[in-house]
Write a structure and sequence with these properties.
Radius of gyration: 22 Å
GO molecular function, one term: kinase activity
Helix content: 40-55%
Strand order of the largest sheet: 3-2-1-4-6-5
CATH class of the largest domain: Alpha Beta
Order of helices and strands: HEEHEHEEHHEHHHEEEHHHHHEHHHEEH
Strand content: 15-25%
Shape: globular
Binding site for substrate: 114
Function: Catalyzes the formation of acetyl phosphate from acetate and ATP. Can also catalyze the reverse reaction.
CATH superfamily of the largest domain: ATPase, nucleotide binding domain
Bound molecules: adenosine monophosphate
Structural class: alpha/beta
Enzyme class: transferase
Organism: Streptomyces humicola
CATH architecture of the largest domain: 2-Layer Sandwich
Length: 421
């Protein structure tokens, strides 16, 4: 309601309006997620708690972003859905207009687009030009499922508001600081370079947001802390962050590498692929589908939702228990590996659907790691809450945190800071 009044007032007044709104678009192959944020007002969800406000609020002055509207248009190009991305974005525009938040508002400063793969070319939020769109299209072979949809979303949004700045925020960008020792595979250099084969990492906006929020929770500047972020959703990745900069992450050329995920295998011996092709007679496309869509928790036990896996484990289901154990074993290996990569760990932060909601996963992942200075508090860990919080024991040398991720806010910050600069 307030927004409606403001918009009308803005239209009537001759004084210039401060454009402080950001539309964040996440265009997938069959869906468009959107969120409209106002960057001028502090967000009730991102405001630091009084205990951490002293340093958190003053040092991170961009800690704003009130969500004005959000939604999703699904089943694009499918039966019962809209025809294409142009129709989907038209629907987004209509939904926003019906709330008095139309795309024609002078308060809209910029559109921020999530783009999955930025290759080595894009290492931060980038103002979109024709040349940038062409570069993102060149990266399609590295992200054949995601980048084409991202590009379509960008093109349609640019057609809708050609006058408005649009910014691409890349999932890979946060990982651009990885040293070559972590980013390169140990394969023939010339072949790797010819085909862009290296470790790029993903979930970068989430790792950036959560590592910064974790520092704020500790009352520290990001440059003062080393953090291991465990982004555990249906896709999952770990990230080692030294003084605010990514130094290693578990996803690689594609999101297939690393942790056991909902439907992805994560790390396997690459020779498994040759074996399945030569001995199993499986075509490469089928192996691709196997490792990306029919592996991980789903492949191991038939379920990829931890709520269901937990229920089955409680009934003594051995298959579900083994899937859980394999998932946890891999996760613990990465915690140990990143403790070694960082040398000193100040905090471990859990985020995304599983990380935020499964005390059992958090507890199992860190059980018995007291010799590494990691001690989780059973009572704090079991509490359900929606805010960023510590779940470590008071004496724990390494803080253990649960931090709800907010990729939309991170994209909005990136896009807004670029056009405001
Ligand atoms: P995301 O990809 O971040 O949306 O995470 C989705 C996953 O989070 C689901 O597949 C579930 O495994 C997990 N999840 C969501 N809610 C819960 C919950 N209450 N308890 C345990 N796991 C959950």
């Amino acid at each position: 309601m307030n927004a409606q009044i403001n918009v009308n007032a803005a239209k009537e007044t001759p004084t210039p309006v401060t454009a402080s709104r950001v539309l964040v678009l996440n265009s997938g192959s069959s869906s468009v997620k959107y969120q409209l944020l106002d960057m001028a007002h502090p967000s009730p969800t991102s405001r630091p708690s009084p205990a951490t406000a002293i340093k958190g609020a003053t040092r991170h002055g961009d800690n704003s972003g009130t969500r004005l509207a959000s939604g999703i248009v699904e089943r694009i190009g499918e039966e019962g859905g809209v025809a294409d991305h142009a129709a989907a974005l038209k629907q987004v525009a209509d939904e926003l207009a019906s709330q008095g938040l139309g795309l024609d508002s002078p308060q809209l400063a910029v559109v921020g687009h999530r783009v999955v793969h930025g290759g080595t070319r894009f290492t931060g939020p980038t103002l979109i030009t024709d040349e940038v769109v062409a570069e993102i299209e060149k990266l399609v072979p590295l992200a054949p499922l995601h980048n084409p949809a991202n590009v379509t979303g960008i093109k349609v949004a640019r057609d809708l508001r050609p006058d408005l700045p649009q910014v691409a925020v890349f999932d890979t960008a946060f990982h651009a600081t990885m040293p070559e020792a972590a980013a390169r595979y140990a394969i023939d250099r010339a072949t790797a370079d010819r085909h862009g084969v290296r470790r790029y990492g993903f979930h970068g906006t989430s790792h950036a947001y959560v590592s910064r929020a974790t520092a704020a929770l500790l009352g520290k500047d990001p440059s003062e802390v080393n953090v291991i972020v465990l982004h555990l959703g249906n896709g999952a990745s770990a990230c080692a962050i030294e003084a605010g900069r990514c130094v290693d992450t578990s996803m690689g050329l594609t999101p297939l590498e690393g942790l056991v995920m909902g439907t992805r295998s994560g790390d396997i011996d690459p020779a498994v692929i040759f074996h399945l092709a030569r001995v199993g007679g499986m075509p490469v496309e089928e192996i691709d589908t196997l490792l990306n869509k029919r592996s991980g928790l789903l492949g191991l036990c038939g379920d990829n939702d931890f709520r269901e896996i937990g229920r089955r484990m409680a009934e003594g289901d051995a298959e579900a228990q083994l899937a859980f154990d394999i998932y946890i074993h891999r996760l613990r290996k990465y915690v140990g590996a990143y403790a070694a990569v960082l040398g000193r760990v100040d905090a471990i932060a859990f985020t995304a659907g599983v990380g935020e909601n499964s005390p059992a996963v958090r507890e199992a992942a860190l059980r018995g790691l007291e010799p590494l200075g990691i001690e989780i508090d059973a009572v704090r860990n079991a509490l359900r809450a929606g805010n960023a919080r510590l779940v470590s024991a008071d004496g724990s040398r390494v803080a253990v945190a649960v931090v709800p991720t907010n990729e939309e806010l991170e994209i909005a910050r990136g896009a807004y800071s670029l056009v405001r600069a």
